Structure formats: C-alpha cells, structure tokens
C-alpha cells in the first residue's frame, strides 16, 4: 500500500468513526490533549488567511453554572438571543433527514413515536451538554459576515476530526447558541464576536443507549455533479 493511500485510509476511518456523542463520562480531558486538538484546528484554511474563528473552552465550576442556567432557560422557554439566526423552516429532504436523525435517537433510548413529553425531556439534555466536562464555544468576528461563518465551519471540521484522532468524543450543538446572552455571562466573549455553536467534548459513555446509533449519509451522487 502506498503512503498516500495509507494516509487517506487513516483519515477516512477517523471521519467514518466520528459521531455526535450524547452521553459523556464526567472524566475531564487532559489540557495537553485539548491543546493538541486546537493545534490541528488552527491549521484550517480561510479566506485570505483571515482565520476568523475564536473559541472559548469552558470547564469546571463555570461550566456547572452555565449548565444549570442554560437548562433552566430552555425548560421555561426563555426568549432566545441568537447571534446567528437559526434555520426558520426545514423543508423537503432536509426535514426528512432531520426527522430521521431525531427518531433514530429516540428509538435508541426507548422513546416511542408521539411521546412528546419524553422526546422534549431528551431534547433538553442539549442544554446540559449531555454531561460533558468541557464546552467549546465557537465564535466568529462579525465583520467577516457569511464568509467568516463558512471559514469557521472549516475550522470546526478540523477540530472534530482531531478530537476523534485522540479518542475524545464530541457533539457540535447549534441549539445552545440560542442563548448567547447566557453564555456571555460565563465566558469573556466580546460583543463583536458572534456565537456560532458549541462543541461539548469529553469521553463517551460507550454503553449508553444514546450513543448506540449512527446517522446515515447521502450518497455522493446526491450532492455532487461532475462537469467536464
């Protein structure tokens, strides 16, 4: 096997193995490993090398306070304060994929279709960060608009694969960005930085039912057109 193919297979295996963890052990990740993840993430390309992503790693008592307040806000339906507008309506195949993802999770943990109380309770676990010992808040400078958001997504992809390579479980979470004002009470995020999403990270509870399913991916032919 050529060196190039071996490297490709390593990357492909990491990408295939990565999943969104929804049940974490309380054991913290060593700071050295978090720094290794960040070293990879910072190599991500960006428009004219603007490097727009800034991240805040929240742990310990600060995270405990944020977890409690965020959960309470979501449970009581507090007004949202998103820096980046959420998707208003999911349509067509996007709604189908969203529903499939949700019901795959609910089925794995024994929630019956139509049980809104149980599914709502599970959805609230987003705001407890699924028990993760660390939360990465991903932000982008407002001056860079949509291009900055795009490049921050590339940074996030590098971050997730680097974590996977070190055996660190992750789950990117758009939902928590709905409460950007609460997050700012626990992290020194300047007004010019837009909160894009969070990434909970730690070590997976491997035997937890919420980590037992995997989402499907569309075939290449569904999203790629070759033109010659």
UniProtKB/TrEMBL annotation:
It comes from the Bacteria. Residues 16-203 form the Nitroreductase domain. Keywords: Flavoprotein, FMN, Oxidoreductase. The keyword Oxidoreductase applies. The keyword Oxidoreductase applies. It holds the Pfam family Nitroreductase. GO terms for molecular function: oxidoreductase activity. Gene3D superfamilies: NADH Oxidase (3.40.109.10). This is Nitroreductase. It comes from Ensifer adhaerens.
